[in-house]
Amino acid sequence: MGYAHDYAAAIMQRGRVPMPPADFVPNWADGPRKTKFYPGADALPLPACDYPAGATLDRGLAGPGADAPEGAFDLATLSGMLRDSYGLTGRRLGVQANTDLDALPFYPLANWSRGTASGGGLYPVSVYWVCGPSGPVPPGVHYYATRHHAMQRLLTGDVSGEVREALGGGAPGADTDQFLVLGIKYWQNAFKYNSFSFHAVTMDVGTVVQTWRMWARAQGLSVEPLMWFDEERLARLLGLRTEEEGVFAVVPLRWKGVEAPPAPAPASVPVSMTESAEVRRRDVERSRTVLTFDAVTRMQAVTSERAAERPALDALAPAEAPAARADRPAVALPAPRPLDTDVRTALRGRRSSFGRFDAQRPMDAEELASCLSAAARGAALGGDTGTSRLAALYAFVSHVDGVAAGVYAYDPATHTLRLVKAGPPGEFLQKNYFLANYNLEQAAAVLVPTIRTTAVLDAVGDRGYRLVNAAIGAISQSLYTAASALQLGCGVALGFDNVSYIEELGLGETGEYPLLIMMVGNERPAPADFRYEIA
Questions:
Q1: In this structure, how many other beta carbons lie within 10 angstroms of the beta carbon of residue 443?
Q2: Which residue of 256, 424, 506, 508 could cross-link 74, Cys pair, CB 3.0 to 4.6 Å?
Q3: What is the mean pLDDT of residues 301-305?
Q4: H or E segment at 407?
């Protein structure tokens, strides 16, 4: 077994055995920016993008259908997808139970809303656009500056061939010269979460990718992420040190107006130039002191060792989620309520509830069915991540009209709940939550996705850890967006005792790891809230 097995076990135990450094305290005054900073880089403001009313969330979760023609991106649609996912869309100032409430009225600490969720609200994903000759701007490498909604040019010249070479043969959709590359700047998250950081940031990759998939598929566009590639080669191209920023995913883009994609080639520039073609500009760090954490450094190393060895699409079949037990009592669910809100509107309305749930306003069974269905549909990442269903879903139901309080396993094949344990789960939920920003008993239901993490690592190696957490992140983003469309409150948390959930759900035999808790329900009416839209 590799180090990723040990790290996964430590994550499960951290509620009882603290991960080192146990006495770590963040230096908030010396924290990093929530973005990278490339001073002097030329910026290309991105254009506005209309979003079609018919691009509903249901369509975004299901895809346009096999018979629908595949659309293509242009600069406006790329701009819209980035703005609605990671761009700043408004300022939020609501009275809630999170610990940062006192700071929010001050502009330097303002809370800016984004369509995509992020662990701790830290947003450590870096988005790079590698533009080849078929693009609308001179070829080169750009960094998406979220606060300006602009592309900052980091390198001039066609290096799309380098990306194709790094992806290797057989990479789905790689016969293009337009790519989005996702990196994770560890310090942007680790300054707060230290050794736990790698676990948190790998979920952030899934939230971004799933936002893009929903946004694009609702309009007939394709976003198919590639997770297996020569990571060191791409890091060199982007001017990154992988111990500081890992490269986690590449998304090929089909571009409008290109009749035939360019054939893969070793490089699109002369060899003499290719050998030295790399981003020379460097991110300027705000923090005076930047710390490293052994667990994060080792996880980056072991998950990138065999990154170019892409497994077969069915390699994860031995790690599939177990079927819901047929010997448990079944509870039929009504058909999910249609999610006919357009994806942009749902993303713009997404936010974390932070203690605003109200048990006196129960959810109805249709709403619960919609949330479960959306979360299950969001579990597939596409691309080269395989066709196996890795995640199972459990529901701790407290206040849902038409569904008795209890703990259930969700069976997506039959759209039913299987009773695991009868009775209100509120006391268990609150007792095993570490923080003070939620009263879990007040939520109508708490959904818990699980994955057989060790089985995934056994099947595809340590890099599978990234895949596990990306899938969990995608599930949470799907639920967040569905809750917004249903006008329900939603919140997601990592601060719970994983071992207690394993025991309560009886997961010891199946090897499933509960990796996230996701609260849904109605919120208190007429909250004190302020929103200032900037997009």
A1: 31
A2: 256
A3: 97
A4: strand 406-411
